[in-house]
Amino acid sequence: MPRGLAFALLLGLLVVPCANAARDAVPVRADIQVRIDPETRELTGKGAWTVPPGVSLAIVLDDRFDVPRLQVDGRPLSTVTQRDGRQQWHLARSERATQSVEIEWRGLLDPLEPGLDHRQVLRHAVPVTAPRGTFLPGAAEWHPVFIGRPLQYTLRIDIPESQRAIVAGDLASDRITDGRRLQTYRFEQPDPAIDLMAGPYRVTERKITGAGNRTITLRTLLHEEVADLGAGYLDATERYLRMYENWIGPYPYGSFSIVSSPTPTGFGMPTLTYLGIDVLRLPFIRDTSLGHEVLHNWWGNGVYPDYSTGNWSEGLTTFMADHAYREQAGPAAARELRLAWLRDLAVLGAGQDRPLREFTSRTHGSDQVIGYHKSAMLFVMLRDAIGKEAFDQGLRRFWSEHRGSIASWDDLRIAFERASQRDLKAFFTQWLDRAGAANLRLESATAARDADEWRLDFTISQDRPAYQLRVPVAVEAGPGQQVHWVELDRERATFSVRTSQVPASITLDPDARLLRRLAPGEAPPILRRVMLDPTTVTVLAGATGAGEALARRVVDHPLQLRSPEAPPPSAPLLLVGLERDVNRYLARHGLPPRPAELAATPDRATAWVWTATRATGDPVTVVSARDATALAALGRPLPHYGRQSWLVFAGGTATARGIWPSRPQSIRLDAAR
Ligand SMILES: [Zn+2]
Q1: CA of 318 relative to ligand 1 center, distance in Å
Q2: Residue 335: φ, ψ to 5°
Q3: Which one of 45, 157, 302, 347 has the lowest number of neighbouring Cβ atoms within 10 Å?
Q4: Which residues of the chain have pLDDT under 70?
Q5: Gap from CA of 349 to ligand 1 centroid (Å)
Q6: What was the pLDDT predicted at 654?
Q7: How far is the CA of 340 from the centre of ligand 1 (A)?
Q8: What does the alpha-carbon distance between residue 449 and residue 456 come to, in Å, rounded to a whole number?
């Protein structure tokens, strides 16, 4: 079954939940032939299914299809129900013998509409075809689906010669007869239903030798206009396969394909990924999302998450793909990614944060924060706790023990416990079952001479109930910086470290390695804060008509207006107006002026937007424009930039933007000499 891809959120797309309730059941064996005519949109199919004894089940098929023949061991079976757009038959249990089910079906597929977005493709789960592309998702029940039983299949696809089709599995044969192409695929790994794609593809193929001398065939099946991307995608795929074979264990299949779609979709299935033509052109797809999808052949499609007890596969995949690529680029890049995750967590509203265990699949932005990022942070902390060697050994053990079956968070924990010889129950329980995150404060620090060394005492506190944490602190002493790890298992504790040189400063978790709520100074102010806070007060300074209209678009709640003559409120402040009036307000009330970063902007800049934190701790967002027209031009774009700290606009276009650097919790020491 397809999964919507991880990058989907970036493109504003949605994602399908993937049910795998029946994966561990004894599979049904299927031998199927389908003929597809993209011009006339006709599909005809016939197949034989072998059902193991002791099984009663429902067979379903989309009701667009006629079924001229449905026989069980040579006897016809009549339709039981017909509703919700599907027809359904009941297959009674045979106690002793396997049953042989033969079905023929035919019908008209929907026309492919390239204008459909990913959300529509997902919502409708409709089988579509055109010469430009065919997509028959298993969820559309375009072939008879045996509910509750996974499927092992041989599938022969008959399509026009100029087309190629692909499904999960290995291509066993591909030949041309009388203007038709006949392709046979085999897939031995039980899957609930078949996703079929076809199109006028150009194929680029490469065979590589994988672990254990196995041949793995890499293919791209791409539309003409992106066919030149094939070699680059194969290079990247080969690199990812080698990386993960070394890290985890042999790639579980004989092939991997990248297939282009005429609609702007993104799906991942076992052995392939199906990506919109425009999506394939985005550079970050090859650099990040592709590797993430390749890795899902181990986590998600190779070992299945146990959805009833939580989905570990997105977090582990994000950690071993997105985060790992940043680590390869350097520690600063990885730190930036973790900080971005923690920043997103910091602006999650109270009702949106849930325990990680409740995450099954992504339907909202907050699910990505929890199921992908929070979950990936769990693996960052786990590796820090047990060390890279035990961590990697645990991964390999988990893979070899659970490959091809459903596994839970507990199975994962047990694999890491065995590898590390440690009890990890408390660790997993606190990160899986508690909503929110740790909230740490570096309260105080003092340094004193002690014999021929320096002793640094510092106190860290956290909210109750306390998490059990290994907390990294960086101590600057002499030319270098040294990281010390301390064990914090209560609400407040004082620790000592010794240094040979005079300590100058101490910083809490400088590399953002802990899943915690960033303190106000650590989470740089972003626009979203003032937009979402119901207590935000708005001050209009000049061009008040245009300013008020803009404020209404930006603030999520009814406006609370205050005169520019009155002192600033002790609440989040949105200041909107003309450059001169805004500057006058800032000066009069002792607020910082426009930051230097925004000053050096081109002459054509017409508006500046920035955030700051006042001495009182209250956030401020300032919108300062050349004139009323420039203010009005922000109405459409500005609400979309909630994750930024500052922007410069020329009319309605953001020409520069950024996020203020975060300031870690740090104390400078006046060491007594
Ligand atoms: Zn994913």
Answers
A1: 7
A2: -60, -40
A3: 347
A4: 1-24, 114, 116-124, 349-352, 361-366, 600-602, 671-673
A5: 24
A6: 92
A7: 18
A8: 9
